[in-house]
């Protein structure tokens, strides 16, 4: 059986995968979000702008900043764990075909201040849809 949105509702696992496929095809998951959410004021009164991108839509400067702020914030944590730090593995995660990046820029000077790397995936059970947050990194000056 197919629902109004064209998603096969046969099994719960199939439905979840179909919903995730639809989410992954969306050019801008924030499109349906109220415009007031795309701009906000932080606890210090600074205005910021939120945007969502796939990795290949980001300019080289933003890609480099994402890699650098992740390394700056996380390298010592990874090095103290059994995993160790592996920059190329982290870059591979960030560039994954279904990866999305919420990017926060200062309204005042367009400076990059934070990002979140997330993906639409199935949860612990195949029938669950979830948004999995892989990274949430904030520039030291805005923490």
From TrEMBL:
Per the UniProt record, the lineage of the source organism begins with: Eukaryota, Metazoa, Ecdysozoa, Arthropoda, Chelicerata
Record-given protein name: Uncharacterized protein
Give the Gene Ontology MF terms in alphabetical order: histone H2A acetyltransferase activity; histone H4 acetyltransferase activity; protein N-terminal-serine acetyltransferase activity
Say which species the protein is native to.
Oppiella nova
* Locations listed in the record: Cytoplasm; Nucleus
A Gene Ontology term for the protein's cellular component: cytoplasm
Q: What is its main location?
A: cytoplasm
Gene3D superfamilies found in the cross-reference section: 3.40.630.30
Q: Keywords assigned by UniProt?
A: Acyltransferase, Cytoplasm, Nucleus, Transferase
């Amino acid at each position: 059986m197919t629902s109004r949105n064209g998603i096969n509702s046969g099994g719960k696992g199939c439905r979840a995968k179909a919903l995730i496929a639809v989410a992954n095809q969306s050019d801008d998951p924030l499109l349906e979000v109220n415009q007031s959410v795309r701009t906000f004021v932080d606890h210090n009164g600074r205005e910021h702008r939120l945007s969502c991108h796939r990795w290949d839509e980001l300019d080289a400067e933003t890609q480099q900043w994402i890699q650098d702020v992740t390394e700056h914030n996380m390298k010592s944590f990874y090095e103290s764990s059994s995993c160790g730090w592996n920059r190329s593995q982290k870059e591979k995660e960030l560039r994954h075909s279904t990866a999305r990046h919420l990017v926060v820029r200062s309204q005042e000077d367009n400076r990059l201040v934070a990002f979140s790397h997330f993906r639409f995936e199935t949860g612990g059970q195949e029938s669950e849809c979830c948004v999995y947050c892989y990274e949430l990194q904030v520039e030291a000056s805005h923490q």
